[in-house]
Design brief:
The structure is a homodimer. Helix content of chain A is about 40%, strand content about 20%. With about 425 residues, the first copy, chain A, is α/β, with parallel strands linked by helices. Chain A has two domains: about 100 residues, Urease, subunit C, domain 1 (Roll); about 290 residues, TIM Barrel (Alpha-Beta Barrel), CATH 3.20.20.140. The mean pLDDT of chain A is about 95. Chains A and B meet through helix 2, helix 9, helix 11, helix 14 and helix 15 of A and helix 2, helix 9, helix 11, helix 14 and helix 15 of B.
Chain lengths: ~425, ~425
C-alpha cells in the first residue's frame, strides 16, 4: 500500500509531505508529487514523530489492571495474580493482549517487548493488532528438570511455529529471571540464542532481595552470574536493572546488552532503588524504557512513562539537568536501544514507516516553545491522532478497528478470571 | 438553570439520575422524574465523579510551558522566567490563565488555588472560564518598605474590587514566601486575613536552602517563623512543605493549616526531598495536591499528579501499601482539605454541583476490577467527557466554548513574551 501524507509538520524540518511505500518511508520533503493510486490524506494541524517503544511489558496482564494494588508483593502474587493466571487460556491471553495492543496504539506505541504465557495467544494478538513485538513464552523451571526440559522443548517448537506470523512478530527467548530459571536452562538459552540469532529478554536486578539471594547462592551479583551462564550478549534485554552496581554496569557495557528501565512499576511496587541511568548512559549501554505489565503500572502510556523516568532520575540525582527532554525522547523512541524497537526512532527515507501524527491543538502541548519538552513533560498518549506501523494505518482520528469487540471480550474474560 | 443527567453510573451506587438546580445537587437516585424546563441529557456509558482540586498553581505560567526546562533553578529564573515576567501585562495574564483554565477543565479540575501577578487578569479569567479559584496578587517586598506598603495597599484594593466577581472567585492573600516577604507584611497579612476571614496561600519549606537560610536569619525553622508572624491559622494554605520536620508538622496540625504537596514540580526541580505525607496524615493535617505552574510541571492534569503523588510516596517510604488509591483519590478531590476546594469532593444532595462525567469506554480504565484504582493509576484527564461546575456545563463531549480563540491568543502572546 502506498500512502501520501500531505502538509504535515516535523519539529526539526517544518511543513513536509511524507510518502510511504511497502512499509518504508519513501520520501520526506515539501510538496512531493502525488503517486498514482496512493491513499492520500491531509496532515495539516498535525505533527509527525517516530512511534514509541515499550521495552518491557506483559501485555495480557491488562486483564488484571487494578486487581490488587497497594499490596505487599508476595501477598499480591499469592492471593491475586497467581490464582488468576492459573486459569488463563490461550484465548484469554489473546484478548488481553489485544486490549493491551489497543491501549498501546491509542498512546503511540509502535513496538514492544512482551513476556508472558501462551505464546500463540500473544503472537496472534500482535499479528492482528498490526504492532511490532518481540514475543516469547516465559520460561520458569523452579519445579525441576522435567519442567526445564518442557520449557526448552517449547521454545524450540515455538521458534519453528513462529514462521506462521509476519516479520512484525519477532520470536524472543524469555527466561523469567535468574531466581526462577535453572543454570541449565539459562545456558541452554544462551546457546540457542547464539545458534538462531534470537533476542533474549529477562528480568534482572529488580529488587535488593534478588541481589542478596544471588550472592548467597552463587557468590556473585546477578549480572556476573548471568554472564557466567553466557547470557550477557548484544542480543540480551535486561528488564529493570535497579540494583546494578558499577562493576556490573561495566560488564554489561562490555558485553553490549540492553537495559530497559521501568520507573513507574519500580515506584509502585516500592522496590526501593532507582536504575543508575547516568552511570549506564556514560558507559554507552543501550537504554530503553518499559511500562511493565498493567497490573503493576497500571497504564501502558509511554508518554506518562517517559515523564516519570525523567522526574525520578532528576529526583534521585538531586539535579534538574539530568535526563533533559531531548535525551528522554530518544530513549522512549528506542533510538538508544536498537534491539527493542525493530528499527524505529528515525523519520527518514528508507526507514520503517512507524509514524505517529499528533494533534498540535491539544492545549497541554501549547505553546510550542519546545515541542519535544511538551511531548516529554506535558503530553499524554491522547495527543496521538493517527498511528502508522509498517506503512499501515492502525488508528486514524483516534478510531481503531474492532475496538468495541476487543473491549467487551477482554472485559468479560477479566471479570471471570478475577474472582477474589 | 436546571439539569437532569439520566442514567449515569456512580461507582459506589450504580446507575442513577442526578438532578441539579441553582448550582447545587438536588437529588441523586435511580429513575428520578423529569423536571419541567430542565435541560436533560443521557449519561449512559459515563461515570459521574467529583471534580478534582488543584491546590497550588500559577495558572498564567502556562504561557511559559517548556521555556527553559532542565536548567538549574537560578539560571532558569534569571535568564528565562524573570525577563519574560517583567514584560507581562494584565491581558497576557488573562489569556495565559484562560489557556490554563481550558487545560484544567479538559482534565477534570473544577477548583484551584492560584498565585500570580495582575489580580484582575487572573480573576476575570476564572470568572469567564466558569471554574472556581482562590485568587490573589502575589506579595513580594524584598525591595523594601515602599514595595511592602504598595503590596499591602494593593491587597486592600483588590479585596474591595473582588466584589465585582461571582462567588466562584475567592479573594485570597498570597504572600510569596518567608524569604521574599518582610516580617511586617507577613504579620499584616495575618491580621488582615483574620479581620476579613480571608485564606492565605504561601510557599513554605520547598527547598533545603530555604530551611537553612531561615535558621541562619531567624534562629528557627520556616513553620515556626511563620507561626511567629501569626500566619499559621486554619485559613492558611502551605504549598510544598517538603522539608518540614516532625516538630513543624505538629505545630501545623495544632494550628489547623492545610499543606498542599506538589510532587511533580518537586521532582522536576530536583528539590531533593519528599513531602512527609505519612506523618502529616497521621497528625490529621488537611492535605491537598497541586500541580504548581506549567513552567515547572509541565502539565496541569491532576490525574497524572495524583499518580505521581502515590508513586513517590510509595518509593520514598519503601512500601507499596502507602497512599492506596482510595486515599489518593480523596486527596485529589479535595475531600481532605476543605479550604482549597470550595466544598468539593462529595456527590450528594445539597452539595455543590461540581461533577465530572467520565467515559467508561477508554481502554486504559478497563476492566473495572477497581474503578478508583483505574482513575488514580491509569487514567489521564482525557477520560473526562463532561465538566459541570456550579451547575453549569463547562465542557461536553470534550468541547469547550472559545477554545480556538483562547489557544490562538495565548500562543501569540507566549511567543512574543518568550524571546531568548
Amino acid at each position: 500500500m502506498t500512502l501520501h501524507i500531505k502538509n504535515v509538520w516535523l519539529y526539526d524540518q517544518g511543513q513536509v509531505d511524507i510518502q510511504i511505500d511497502a512499509g518504508k518511508i519513501k520520501a520526506i520533503a515539501p510538496n512531493l508529487p502525488e503517486i498514482d493510486g496512493a491513499e492520500s490524506f491531509d496532515g495539516n494541524g498535525m505533527a509527525a514523530v517516530s512511534g514509541l517503544v515499550n521495552g518491557h511489558t506483559h501485555a495480557a496482564m491488562s486483564l488484571f489492571r487494578g486487581f490488587g494494588d497497594d499490596m505487599q508483593l508476595m501477598e499480591w502474587l499469592q492471593t491475586r495474580i497467581w490464582p488468576a493466571e492459573a486459569k488463563l487460556t490461550e484465548e484469554d491471553v489473546y484478548w488481553g493482549s489485544r486490549m493491551a495492543c489497543m491501549e498501546m496504539i491509542r498512546s503511540g506505541t509502535v513496538a514492544f517487548e512482551d513476556m508472558y504465557w501462551h505464546f500463540h495467544g500473544m503472537a496472534k494478538a500482535v499479528e492482528d493488532s498490526g504492532l511490532r513485538a518481540g514475543v516469547g513464552a516465559v520460561m520458569i523451571d523452579i519445579a525441576g528438570e522435567k519442567q526445564g526440559q518442557e520449557c526448552r522443548d517449547q521454545a524450540v517448537q515455538y521458534l519453528e511455529e513462529s514462521g506462521r506470523y509476519s516479520d512484525r512478530v519477532k520470536f524472543t527467548l524469555t527466561p523469567h529471571a535468574i531466581y526462577t530459571v535453572s543454570a541449565k536452562s539459562l545456558s541452554w538459552s544462551a546457546e540457542f540464542s547464539d545458534k538462531h540469532n534470537l533476542p533474549v529478554h529477562i528480568h534482572l536486578s529488580e529488587t535488593a532481595f534478588e541481589v542478596s539471594e544471588c550472592i548467597k547462592q552463587n557468590g556473585v551479583r546477578p549480572a556476573v552470574y548471568l554472564d557466567q551462564q553466557g547470557l550477557l550478549t548484544p542480543r540480551t534485554i535486561l528488564a529493570h536493572g535497579v540494583y546494578l552496581d558499577d562493576d556490573e554496569l561495566e560488564l554489561i557495557a562490555k558485553r553490549g546488552s540492553t537495559i530497559v528501565s521501568n520507573p513507574v512499576s519500580n515506584m509502585k511496587l516500592a522496590v526501593g532503588g532507582v536504575f543508575p541511568y547516568q552511570k549506564a548512559a556514560e558507559l554507552g549501554i543501550p537504554i530503553g524504557l518499559g511500562s511493565d505489565g498493567a497490573a503493576s503500572n497500571n497504564s501502558l502510556d509511554m508518554f506518562q512513562e517517559v515523564k516519570t523516568f525523567s522526574l525520578i532520575q532528576k529526583h534521585a540525582n538531586n539535579d534538574p539537568t539530568v535526563l533533559p527532554s531531548a535525551k528522554a525522547w530518544q530513549v522512549v523512541t528506542g533510538v538508544d536501544a536498537p534491539l527493542i524497537g525493530q528499527g524505529s526512532g528515525v523519520l527518514a527515507a528508507g526507514e520503517n514507516a512507524d509514524i505517529l501524527l499528533l494533534n498540535r491543538d491539544e492545549p497541554e502541548i501549547c505553546p510550542e516553545h519546545d515541542f519535544v519538552s511538551n511531548l516529554v513533560y506535558s503530553a499524554t498518549g491522547h495527543v496521538v491522532d493517527t498511528v502508522i506501523v509498517a506503512g499501515k494505518i492502525l488508528m486514524k482520528n483516534r478510531v481503531i478497528d474492532q475496538e468495541l469487540e476487543i473491549r467487551q471480550e477482554a472485559t468479560a474474560r477479566a471479570k471471570s478470571l478475577c474472582k477474589v
